[in-house]
Amino acid sequence: MAKQKNTNDTMEKLVSLCKRRGYVFPSSEIYGGLISCWDYGPMGAELKRNLKNFWWNEMTNRRDDIEGLDAAILMHPQVWHTSGHVELFNDPMVDCKKCKARFRADKLEESRCPEKPSKSPIEHGCDLTEAKNFNLMFKTHMGPIESDDNVIYMRPETAQGIYVNFLNVKNSSRQKIPFGIAQIGKAFRNEITPGNFIFRTREFEQMEMQFFIHPTEDDQWFEYWREQRWEFYKKLGINMEKLRWHEHGEGELAHYAKAAYDIEYEYPFGWQELEGVHNRTDFDLSRHMEATRKNMEYKDERYEEKFVPYIIETSAGCDRTLLTLLVDAYDEVEIKGETRVFLRLSPKVAPIKAAILPLVKKDGMPEYAEKVLAEVKKHHKVFYDVSGAVGRRYARMDEAGCPFCITIDGQTLEDDTMTVRDRDTMEQKRMKTAEIIDFLDVQVNG
Ligand code: ATP
Is the CB of 324 within 6 Å of ligand 1? Predict the structure, then answer.
């Protein structure tokens, strides 16, 4: 079955499918929505949870050298001065003198002029000002008094929560270098031009891992983590032909980085960053050490001298990976003159692993199906659907991203077997309840 090529209207179709099937809704929709803010519906929440669990398992549970962390979003404001974010976390911004719209100067091609949304500001001939720097951090005030003395920031990356806890984690876990700290959590950036659905938003979640190493081993660990992160997307079932590496040139490198590579995906709106792998050197720990006078140097019997660890960072956007999964899974197939949509999500992350469908509403089939449901649901998220022709029910589940449909028919009542239909191969096999549970275990957990 040929995969549908990405086209410009794929995004529109995907946004509408996400709404229809309960994946993603516009935030505060009944109030007209809030720009660049989205809510995950029942299916989206489940998909996001599965994705985070998958990342967490790969990055922590399946390894001995990475510990988890869940740091607060609000941090001491001095952290962001020390990290360089107050001074340097800027994007270049330009204004259009005619329509007054504001754009990110380095992303003009992917921006849209509000007067002519089909065109970029360049194509539309906008009259743009010189670029000015705009700080991306959201500010708020801690406590009941709004003054300059109690300004705090919504974290623009989760990484700093890891750096300030380096000593705590090292001492409490007794890990030895090389080791890493992983964290999943919200980050906030006052993006100048958010857009492309959940690709660039102002509130988003990151899945970050910071790996602490000896400074002389940075190149080798950098390569190791590039490889690991590439393999991660393969395991996740992403079409690898749509992924590529992009190396940051001199002008592109963030203020803390010695080397950086992005994993880019070919979205319907072009090649864009999905994840960054960065060599942050000892920049962060040295700066925090200098600011706090807490000794972040490392020493154990294997090293002659103390050193401030270097850090290799892997930083992925959770929402952006979720969008990648959806874009990658979206497929349209012509069947008997009708365009059918398939969301070919891998069973590893699919919100619902199987649908249980009694063929008819009589002859004891619904009762049998309910018993199977009760059994399978102890192990996997399954869905029961008894309404409508079985063909329509299959179609609904295919579009909703459900990988397997289990049908109870006349033969089931005789020999306790059910047909298990694979969404992608359309193959049907007969299995008993216990076999179905084992089959789903293998499909979901690998
Ligand atoms: P960009 O160049 O797209 O603004 P960045 O280079 O600033 O991204 P990083 O700071 O490296 O991004 O952040 C790490 C990851 O966090 C990105 O690869 C992306 O997946 C995610 N991310 C960053 N900004 C956003 C955002 N505004 N919305 C959604 N995800 C984001």
Answer: no
Closest residue to atom 25 of ligand 1, CA basis? 200
- Bridge-based pairing state of the strands 354-358 and 382-384: parallel
The residues pairing with 184 across neighbouring beta strands, listed in sequence order, are 207
Q: Establish whether residue 315 lines the binding site of ligand 1, counting it when its CB lies within 6 angstroms of any ligand atom.
A: yes
Stated pTM of the model: 0.93
Residue 170 in contact with ligand 1 by CB distance below 6 A? no
DSSP for 329-374, written as a single string: HEEEEEETTEEEEEE---TTT-S--EEEEESSSSTTHHHHHHHHHH
Q: What's the CA-to-centroid distance between 397 and ligand 1, angstroms?
A: 32
CA of 86 from ligand 1 middle (Å) equals 18
- CB of 180 sitting under 6 A from ligand 1: no
Contact present, 137 and 154 (Cβ < 8 Å): yes
Q: What pLDDT sits at residue 2?
A: 40
Q: Are 171 and 129 in contact (CB under 8 A)?
A: no
> Low-confidence residues of the chain, pLDDT below 70?
1-8
200 Cβ inside 6 Å of ligand 1:
yes
C-alpha 131/C-alpha 93 separation (Å) is 5
Strands across the sheet with 243-247, in order?
A: 66-69, 179-188, 203-213, 310-317, 270-281, 259-267, 243-247
Sign of CA dihedral 390, 394, 400, 403: positive
Output the CA torsion sign for 91, 92, 97, 103. negative
List beta partners, residue 249: none
pLDDT of residue 8: 60
Residue identifier of the C-alpha nearest atom 10 of ligand 1: 157
Q: Where are the beta strands (DSSP E) in 217-268?
A: 243-247, 259-267
Residue 273, ligand 1, Cβ within 6 A: yes
- pLDDT recorded at residue 254: 84
Torsion sign, CA atoms 116, 119, 125, 130 = positive
**Which own/partner contact pairs does 413-422 have at CB distance under 8 Å and 24+ positions apart?**
413/363, 413/364, 413/365, 413/368, 418/372, 420/354, 421/394
